[in-house]
Amino acid sequence: MNEDEFEKQVGNNDDFIEDIILSAGRNLSFEKRLKCLHQSDRIDQLYGCLRCTGFEERIGWLSNLQSYELFNEERRGFVSALNLYSIGEVGDRFEVSLIYPPYFYVETKLGREKDVYAYLSKRYHNRCLSFDLIAKEDLGN
């Protein structure tokens, strides 16, 4: 497929790359983010990479991965996901999206970890899926 045919089916590639960069910063409107997702799916289909949505077992070799967001119809919102691109046993290409909950780390003063953990788990028990106490090393110092 040449570049003109690609632009006819997908649109201007420069605009698409710009949209992806903005989408990562979440500066896009709801409609624009949804349009980017549909455009990304069309590009994957043009390159022969089909999205697996069922629960069928497939064997393949992981060839690439990238962060992604999916639209959740039930909640009418976006969820974080990881797209796993694979090459199947017969040379076919497919992708699987793995949804994961957002997370963040909180740094505490030494010796106060358990106090902060207890406070956060008590204060936000109904808003968070889980709390974990994890030791990390700050490589910046």
Automatic annotation (TrEMBL):
Listed EC numbers: 2.7.7.7
Keyword Protein biosynthesis attributed: no
Cell compartments where the protein resides: Nucleus
InterPro entries with a match to the protein in the record: POL2 (IPR029703)
Keyword DNA-binding among record annotations: yes
One MF term in the entry's GO annotations: DNA-directed DNA polymerase activity
Keywords of the record: 4Fe-4S, DNA replication, DNA-binding, DNA-directed DNA polymerase, Iron, Iron-sulfur, Metal-binding, Nucleotidyltransferase, Nucleus, Transferase, Zinc, Zinc-finger
Leading EC class: transferase
Protein's job: DNA polymerase II participates in chromosomal DNA replication.
Family in the record: Belongs to the DNA polymerase type-B family.
Protein name per the record: DNA polymerase epsilon catalytic subunit
Organism: Rotaria sordida
